[in-house]
Specification:
Layout (H helix, E strand, L loop, with lengths): L19 H20 L2 H21 L9 H26 L24 H13 L2 H12 L4 H8 L3 H18 L8
Helix pairs in contact: 1-2, 1-3, 1-5, 2-3, 5-7, 6-7
Length: 189
C-alpha cells in the first residue's frame, strides 16, 4: 500500500493534531500484514486497511475515539477483522445465488509476501508464510496478532470476543503446529 507524505508538520503534542505520518510509518506494514491474512488478496487487504484508516481518522478528529494513540492499532485491527468477515459473508451470499458448490475451496489469490525480512532469511520467511497460510485460520490470526502486531493476549481476547484462556490455549496449539512442521534449521533455541 503506497501513500504520499504530506508537508504537514503537525505533531502529537497535547491539544494539537496527531502526527499521522509518523504513526502510519510505524504501523502500516504490520496492519497490512494482518489485512492480508484476513483476505488472502492483496487488493482486498489494501482496501480494508484504507477503509479502517479512514474510520480511525474520522473517529479521532470527531472526538468520538477517546482512547490514546497507543490504542489506534487495536481499533484498526478490529475494523479490518470485522470488514473482512463482512466481505466474506457478501461473497458467500453471492456464491449461493449463483449456485456455486458449497464445498468449493476459497480462491487464494497470489499476493505480495505477508512477512517481510530485512536480512537474507527469505527461505525461512517463505516456509513460515506457507505454514501460516495452510494452518487453521484462527491459529494463524493469533500468531499474527501476538507476534507481528505485538498485542498482549488480553487485548486479543477482547478484540476477538473470546475468553483469555481460549486465546492462550489456541496460541500454544498454533505454536506447537509451527514447531512440528517448521524445518528445524529455522528454529532458534
Amino acid at each position: 500500500m503506497s501513500r504520499q507524505k504530506t508537508d504537514d508538520s503537525s505533531t502529537s503534542v497535547e491539544g494539537s493534531r496527531p502526527d499521522w505520518d509518523a504513526w502510519l510509518d510505524a504501523h502500516c506494514a504490520r496492519l497490512l500484514l494482518y489485512a492480508r491474512s484476513q483476505t488472502r488478496s492483496e487488493s482486498d487487504a489494501e482496501d480494508l486497511l484504507q477503509i479502517a484508516l479512514i474510520r480511525l481518522v474520522r473517529a479521532v478528529e470527531s472526538g468520538e475515539f477517546r482512547k490514546t494513540q497507543e490504542q489506534w492499532a487495536a481499533y484498526v485491527l478490529s475494523c479490518i477483522r470485522h470488514d473482512a468477515i463482512d466481505l466474506q459473508r457478501r461473497r458467500n451470499a453471492g456464491q449461493r445465488t449463483e449456485r456455486v458448490a458449497a464445498t468449493q475451496q476459497p480462491q487464494v489469490v497470489e499476493c505480495k509476501p505477508w512477512l517481510t525480512c530485512q536480512d537474507d532469511a527469505v527461505t525461512a520467511r517463505d516456509e513460515v508464510e506457507r505454514l501460516l497460510r495452510n494452518m487453521r485460520e484462527d491459529y494463524a490470526e493469533l500468531i499474527i496478532l501476538h507476534v507481528w502486531q505485538e498485542l498482549p493476549f488480553r487485548e486479543i481476547a477482547e478484540m476477538l470476543d473470546l475468553p483469555l484462556q481460549t486465546v492462550v490455549s489456541r496460541y500454544r496449539s498454533a505454536m506447537k503446529f509451527l514447531r512440528q512442521h517448521l524445518n528445524p534449521d529455522y528454529l532458534t533455541k
